Amino acid sequence: MHSLKEEFHYLFDKSEDLGVCLLGLIDWLKKAAPYYQKSVKTIRRWFGEVIGYFERKTTSGVVEGINNKLKLIKRSGFGFNNFRNFEIRALLSWHYDTRLAR
């Protein structure tokens, strides 16, 4: 299992050619299926998006971070009197000048 994990990391970190990455990922999915059933199922479901990473080497990490921060503000701000208070709190989290948001 450890060697499969390392092979997966190597595939994402060191691969440059889209074709090689595609074939390597398909091969990895076949080898990993008995050990990582849930992960293989998820990767197959999102296969197009995963392959998209190899084209541009970008992830949705920044957007996921913003979403998590907004969820945290929403949970901690239970009882805000209006949406504007929530909006100000969210904008201040990113050091945004709230006077410009009108």
What does this structure look like?
By secondary structure, the chain is mainly α. It has two domains: 2-56, no CATH class; 61-100, no CATH class. It contains six helices and no strands. The chain has helices at 2-14, 18-32, 37-45, 47-56, 61-76, 83-93. Helix 1 (2-14) packs antiparallel against helix 2 (18-32). It starts with a helix and ends in a 9-residue tail after the last helix.
Q: Topology, pairings included?
A:
Elements: H1 2-14, H2 18-32, H3 37-45, H4 47-56, H5 61-76, H6 83-93
Keywords summarizing the entry:
single chain, 102 residues, mainly alpha, 2 domains, 0% strand, elongated
Summarize, please.
The chain is 73% helix and 0% strand. It is mainly alpha-helical and 102 residues long.
Question: Helical residue percent?
Answer: over 70%
Q: Alpha-carbon distance between the termini?
A: 54 Å
Give the domain tally: 2
Mean pLDDT over the full residue set: 83
**Helix count, DSSP H or I runs of 4 or more residues:** 6
Largest sheet: none
Structural class: mainly alpha
| Strand content bin | under 5%
Envelope shape: elongated
Count of DSSP E strands?
Answer: 0
Poorly predicted sequence stretches spanning 5 or more consecutive residues: none
Query: Could you give the order of the helices and strands?
Result: HHHHHH
Rg, alpha carbons: 20 Å
